[in-house]
Amino acid sequence: MNSDPVQDILTAGDSREPQSRSIAVPIWLIVLMVLLLYWGAVYFDQNGGWFSAKVYSPYRSLQEVESFQFRAGAGDVFELGRMVYNKPTCVACHQASGQGNPGQFPPLAASEWVNEPEPGRMIRLVLNGLQGPITVKGQSFNNSMVAWNMLSDQEIAAVITYVRQNKEWGNNAPAVTPAQVKSVREKIVKAHPAPFNPDELMKISPAE
Questions:
Q1: How far is CA 183 from the centre of its chain?
Q2: Which H helix or E strand runs over 47?
Q3: What H or E segment, with its residue span, contains residue 135?
Q4: pLDDT digit string (tens) for 61-112?
Q5: How far apart are CA 123 and CA 133, in angstroms?
Q6: pTM value surpassing 0.85
Q7: Where are the domains of the chain?
Q8: Which of the listed residues 13, 22, 194, 198 has the most CB atoms within 10 Å of its CB?
Q9: How crowded is residue 149: how many other Cβ atoms within 10 Å of its Cβ?
Q10: H or E segment to which residue 139 belongs
């Protein structure tokens, strides 16, 4: 009498344990997933992601950048300089009055550094910043000034002009042009990328 194989298994029990089989993921699928992730990140970044190349320090959003942009008809160079000065840049340390903070940040009002006939030293100060003790109007200050070289030549020329020609502060020095700023920037961009100190500046002719 022939036995039934199925019945034999059910009766005797199957002692064999199930075995899992690993299935290899095709290389092309992995590459496709990586490309899709990369494309998605780029698309997200360029369409309102967490970072915008148009936003740079000290601004926090594109709206803030746009609110401070100088537009034709908005005023002359002095007014552009006022706008730049009152951003989160100069005014935070030197105050709206130009009087600075005693013992911390020097005054710009009636400052001998500001009122030099030639602006070479002041342009260097704004472009690269300053470190080390400095004496202004007989007072000693020993704090650091950050570099503002991310500003355009036009913005730097305008803000220095605003400070140098602010008669309310007792200043009356010649205006500064973008060409002068560009000239100084080209001289120091590789030769002196670090912040200046007062001793270095005193050895440089303000006409250079």
A1: 22
A2: none
A3: strand 134-136
A4: 655 555 555 444 435 888 999 999 998 789 889 999 999 988 889 999 999 9
A5: 18
A6: no
A7: 71-202
A8: 198
A9: 15
A10: strand 139-141
Q: Note the pLDDT tens digit of each residue in 135-172.
A: 999 999 988 899 999 999 999 999 999 999 999 999 99
Just give the CATH number of 71-202.
1.10.760.10
* In 107-149, alpha helices (H): 120-128
Report which of 54, 137, 128, 143 is spatially closest to residue 92, judged by C-alpha positions: 143
Determine contact, residues 65/83, Cβ cutoff 8 Å: no
- What's CA 171's distance to the chain center, in Å? 29
Per-residue burial over 12-28, b if 16 or more Cβ lie within 10 Å, else e, is eeeeeeeeeeeeeeeee
DSSP string, 180-194: HHHHHHHHHTTT--S
Query: Which amino acid is it at 17?
Result: E
